Amino acid sequence: MEQQIIEAIKTVYDPEIPVDIYELGLIYNIDIQDSGLVNLRMTLTTPMCPVADSLPMEVQEKIATVEGVKDVELEVVYDPPWNKEMMSEEARFALDMF
Asked: Domain 2-94 is classified in which CATH homologous superfamily?
């Protein structure tokens, strides 16, 4: 189920950055309970992100569509703060940030 959740998350993009939020390194932790509860910790590129209200809700909605997921508890955290080193190699390549 974890891979399906990751694939669902990879359909979510920050509208200002042409890379999905998973590859950006915004997802800190995915914990899947046997009951179907998914606990997710994520961050944003900055606390002042223009989509700070809508992006987490979109992530939650996408995860909820995965078969077997009964509920999603999503926590937005800012510690540790996001930085470009958290991006995957694929994301750095796409954004020309090597």
From this structure: Fe-S cluster assembly (FSCA) (3.30.300.130)
